Automatic annotation (TrEMBL):
A divalent metal cation 1 binds at H12, H14, E98, D205. Belongs to the metallo-dependent hydrolases superfamily. TatD-type hydrolase family. It comes from Cynoglossus semilaevis (Tongue sole). Exhibits 3'-exonuclease activities and apurinic/apyrimidinic (AP) endonuclease (in vitro). Show preferential AP endonuclease activity on double-stranded DNA substrates and 3'- exonuclease activity on single-stranded DNA. InterPro entries: Metal_Hydrolase (IPR032466), TatD-like (IPR001130). Pfam families: TatD_DNase (PF01026). SUPFAM superfamilies: Metallo-dependent hydrolases. This is TatD DNase domain containing 3. GO terms for molecular function: hydrolase activity, acting on ester bonds; metal ion binding.
């Protein structure tokens, strides 16, 4: 069954964070990303409840929550818990994510902690390669491109807030960048100015990165991202919708099984 229609694809959101039953307006598809193995079953069950609309991405985020007040860097044990579930659902996945590196001092203080994060990322990149899936990447760092494991050719860099000049290295590598609604209040405006539209996807990162600070974000705010990109690029919003949707289908080919433009 194919959907022939216009609409946006939200390439990175935390749908399991809340029950987003009423989010279909203007959306063709959502990619639901995980942060830890404890979310995997919920994301899979949502994708089964909304087949052809919610698509699962499973992975271990570089920052893990111990309690609401305490976070730490990802450890190899976190990945050990995740890998059997990824293996179980590998045929259903559209990406491995959310993965990456985050050396923010309050999460990671020692070289051993940094090395653990690197090992978690490297192993997940290997899994993605074995399964022929792209990486959905936590990429808040100028240095990440140089640290993505060798051989990563398909990646979505979500909410990248590094220098536009560094992002252009990602463009040369064939990576895509997804832009959240928080662009209306962020440095990402400079990034979008320089990025080719052919390397841009849309995301909300719901429930974070909304147009207003501290206000819960929702997938319907995807249109805010598109409208702002159209403003910066000086092209109609329909063109942004068309190109970003094509980009998403190129990067996540499994979406093509239900969405045809």
């Amino acid at each position: 069954c194919f959907f022939h229609m216009h609409g946006f694809i939200d390439c990175h959101c935390h749908i399991s964070a809340r029950d987003f039953d009423e989010v279909r307006a203007g959306l063709l598809a959502l990619l639901a990303v995980a942060e830890h193995a404890g979310e995997f079953e919920k994301i899979i069950s949502l994708s089964q409840r909304f087949p052809g609309f919610i698509f699962p991405c499973l992975g271990v985020h570089p920052v893990q929550e111990v309690s609401p007040e305490q976070q730490r860097g990802a450890l190899v044990q976190d990945l050990d818990a995740a890998l059997p579930i990824i293996e179980q659902y590998k045929d259903h996945l559209v990406a491995i994510g959310e993965v990456g590196l985050d050396f923010t001092p309050r999460y990671v203080s020692s070289d051993a902690d940094k090395e653990s994060q690197r090992q978690v990322l490297i192993r997940q990149a290997q899994v993605a390669k074995e399964l022929d899936l792209p990486l959905n990447v936590h990429s808040r760092s100028n240095k990440l491109f140089r640290k993505l494991p060798l051989g990563v050719s398909k990646a979505l860099l979500h909410a990248f807030d590094g220098k536009p000049s560094v992002a252009m290295e990602g463009v040369k590598a064939g990576y895509f960048f997804s832009i959240p609604p928080s662009i209306v209040r962020s440095e990402q405006q400079k990034l979008v100015k320089q990025l080719p539209l052919e390397n841009i996807c849309l995301e909300t990162d719901s429930p974070a990165l909304g147009p207003e600070k501290q206000v819960r974000n929702e997938p319907k705010n995807i249109s805010v991202s598109a409208e702002y990109i159209s403003l910066i690029k000086g092209v109609p919003v329909e063109k942004v919708m068309e190109i970003t949707t094509q980009n998403a289908l190129r990067l996540f080919p499994k979406l093509k099984s239900v969405i045809r433009l």
